[in-house]
Here is the input.
Amino acid sequence: MTTIDLNADLGEGMGNDDDLLDIVSSASIAGGGHAGDAATIRHVLRKCKARGVRAGAHPGYVDRARFGRFRLVVPLDTLLSQVRDQIFLVRYIAEEIGVPLSYVKLHGALANQTAEELAFAVAIFAAIQAMDPKIAVLALDNSEQVRAANAVGAPLIREAYADRAYTAGGLLVPRNQSGAVIEDVDAVIARCLRLARAGEIVAIDGTVLKSQARSICLHGDTPGAVDLAREVRAALEAEGVTIAAVPPVENSP
Here is the structure.
């Protein structure tokens, strides 16, 4: 039986967190860098506990004005401190509520940069690993994030994106390029089904990419996000796919 995890980035002020938490099996919670604060974190974590949704931290560049989607030039020690602070905040509240914090997923420009730059990704993931060696990283499959997780021995959950176009090299097409976000509902559903059935994703140029991803990201900040998430889940379940949080793969350095 095939199992797929559906994850969404929550606590970002989109107003649809509660609805998405009825659909997804994992919630990546903004920790105050690009969005979110203690109140939003607490709200999402309480809902995760009530609904049995796996909780993760979702740190990014500290840049609320641009939603963490632009790369900043920041001294590495400053950036690592900011990432740790965001994870600490989510973890502190999770412990207060009694919810395990299971993974970390990087946001926006920070995620894209670590997907491209191995040494940078190793530095970020090593800092996370030092905080908690049992916490997993939710990483873009076939990217430098996966290699970095393997290098530092972090537990790994491989991820793919439902509504983002891919380059032939397996990275996400930049949002400022035409076609970067897939808006056709049928196309998104077809992609998710192909990934679940065959472990394949078709890049923007037609290249067929092999993928071991078992977690699919459903963005909460796109128009119609809740309806799209609901349709994706229904389509997967109609094909006999179980929707549940998949366990991480244990790595050792």
Q: What stands out?
A: The CA atoms of residues 34 and 68 lie 5 Å apart. The first strand starts at residue 3 and ends at 10. Residues 3-243 form a domain with the TIM Barrel fold (CATH 3.20.20.370). The mean pLDDT is 95.
